[in-house]
Amino acid sequence: MRRSVAVRQGFFRRSRNLGFMGMTAPAHLGGAGAEYVSYTFALMEVVAADGALLTINWIQNSLILSGILKDGNPAQQERLLPRLIAGTTIGPLR
Fold first, then answer.
1. Which tens digits make up the pLDDT trace of 36-65?
2. C-alpha angle 28/29/30, rounded to 5°?
3. Domain boundaries in the chain?
4. Do the Cβ atoms of 32 and 23 come closer than 8 Å?
5. 63: nearest Cα among 91, 41, 82
6. pTM (two decimals)
7. Which residues are CB-contacts of 48 (< 8 A; sequence separation ≥ 6)?
């Protein structure tokens, strides 16, 4: 169990350092402000290494972040997105 948690934490830390977390989120919230073509190319690189990690990254960026960007109010976005983009909060988990 400890190894599994360490692997996940390491993955999200590396993803953040490479700019994969929150690629399409606005820069003022900590994202890269990239368009979806660049994001797709980044996902292709991740899937070449590990499909399971791609799934985790895709859920974090495509489902959770985009949902908050689309439907969240500004206060929710400012409260939630920086932590999600930093990889300190993973999806609905703390």
1. 899 889 888 888 887 877 887 788 888 899
2. 95
3. 2-86
4. yes
5. 91
6. 0.73
7. none
Q: Which two tokens stand for residue 68?
A: 């908050």
**Which tokens in the block code for residue 15?**
């993803």
Distance (Å, whole) CA 87 – CA 60: 9
Whether the CB-CB separation of 84 and 22 falls below 8 Å is answered with: yes
Q: Which of 25, 42, 5 is nearest to 86 (CA)?
A: 25
2-86: CATH topology is Butyryl-Coa Dehydrogenase, subunit A; domain 1 (1.10.540)
Tell me the torsion sign for CA atoms 6, 9, 12, 15.
negative
35: three-class secondary structure by DSSP? coil
